[in-house]
UniProtKB/TrEMBL annotation:
Alphabetized PANTHER family for the sequence: TRNA (CYTIDINE_URIDINE-2'-O-)-METHYLTRANSFERASE TRMJ, TRNA/RRNA METHYLTRANSFERASE
Entry's Gene Ontology molecular function annotations: RNA binding; tRNA (cytidine(32)-2'-O)-methyltransferase activity; tRNA (cytidine(32)/uridine(32)-2'-O)-methyltransferase activity
Keywords from the UniProt entry: Cytoplasm, Methyltransferase, S-adenosyl-L-methionine, Transferase, tRNA processing
GO annotation, biological process: tRNA nucleoside ribose methylation
Highest taxon, organism lineage: Bacteria
EC number of this enzyme: 2.1.1.200
The tRNA/rRNA methyltransferase SpoU type domain, residue ranges: 19-172
Record has S-adenosyl-L-methionine as a keyword: yes
Name of the protein described by the UniProt record: tRNA (cytidine/uridine-2'-O-)-methyltransferase TrmJ
Reactions it catalyzes: uridine(32) in tRNA + S-adenosyl-L-methionine = 2'-O-methyluridine(32) in tRNA + S-adenosyl-L-homocysteine + H(+); cytidine(32) in tRNA + S-adenosyl-L-methionine = 2'-O-methylcytidine(32) in tRNA + S-adenosyl-L-homocysteine + H(+)
Length: 272
């Protein structure tokens, strides 16, 4: 049977390499070590810390090293970046993990469904990320809005907040199962959460999260220039636009069109 490029089997290692686990503003060095161990047991190796509370020293913290156990190689290779935008550089599909449900934000997905979608993106050679919040406050709404989907692990409804590294472990397990299924060529094709991948063979290069961030900053400036957006009273406009773009899953070419529109608005204003 012939297979399309989109459904051809991939080697597990190439898929596993496309997956980043991002811990945002983590406080406890022990959780960083445990997360390194959690992802290594599932075959992954890319851990990224965005603005860790303990600073870059967290990787040398005795508690982190002790809890990483045999995953000290993952710990040593952990990337430290100043914020979530930097952590998502080059990522085209990002999933926010939240212990709480949210009124606004990107479309919701189940953990298994999010892994199935992520592996489809990884199979196209795109980088994907799972983003976890801090122990005390979780992810801010602004951080959730930087992602394409929001996932809640459906735990005990009256006690649903998992330890950070245990949440990482569950998602890494779901991703392992999804990567192994994809490598065998029998991954489910997911068509929910506004994914365009039902027709993956025809899709152009997807915009990365940083492409979308740059476009939104540009668009925001243009909307202010048009007096459509009042910077002193922005209401939920940018949040709603983020959600709209998260659902439409922009391609790079589409981001360029939107940037072109903003550029022309700003230039016309200058000429006047
Ligand atoms: N007190 C925080 C929860 C922190 S738990 C709050 O109220 O939001 C630390 C992180 O682990 C969370 O930000 C989330 O990324 C992940 N996590 C914990 N439990 C989760 C669950 N049930 N579903 C999805 N993610 C969860």
């Amino acid at each position: 049977m012939s297979q399309s490029a989109a459904s051809a089997p991939h080697s597990p290692s190439s898929l596993f390499d496309q997956v980043r686990f991002v811990l945002n503003e983590t406080s406890h060095p022990g959780n960083v070590g445990s997360a390194a161990r959690a992802i290594k047991t599932m075959g992954f190796g890319r851990l990224v810390l965005a603005a860790p509370r303990a600073g870059a020293d967290v990787l040398r913290d005795p508690e982190a090293i002790a809890l990483a156990s045999g995953a000290d190689d993952v710990l040593a290779n952990t990337l430290i970046v100043p914020d979530l935008v930097a952590a998502l550089q080059g990522v085209s599909w990002a999933v926010a993990l939240s212990a709480r449900s949210r009124e606004y934000g990107p479309p919701n997905a189940e953990p298994r469904e999010s892994a199935a979608i992520a592996v489809q993106h990884a199979g196209q050679g795109e980088a994907v990320a799972f983003v976890f919040g801090s122990e005390r406050t979780g992810l801010s709404n602004a951080d959730v809005d930087r992602c394409n989907a929001l996932v809640h692990i459906p735990a005990n409804p009256v006690y649903s907040s998992l330890n950070l590294s245990q949440a990482v472990q569950l998602i890494a397990w779901e991703m392992r199962m999804a990567c192994l299924a994809q490598a065998r060529g029998d991954a489910p094709q997911v068509v929910t959460v506004a994914t365009p991948l039902a027709d993956a063979a025809s899709h152009d290069a997807l915009a990365t999260r940083d492409d979308v961030e740059g476009m939104l900053t540009h668009l925001e400036r243009a909307l202010v220039e048009l007096d459509f957006l009042d910077p002193d009273n922005p209401k939920k406009l940018m949040t709603r636009l983020r959600r709209l773009f998260a659902k439409s899953h922009l391609e790079r070419e589409e981001v360029n069109i939107l940037r072109g529109i903003s550029k022309h608005i700003l230039e016309r204003k200058v000429r006047r």
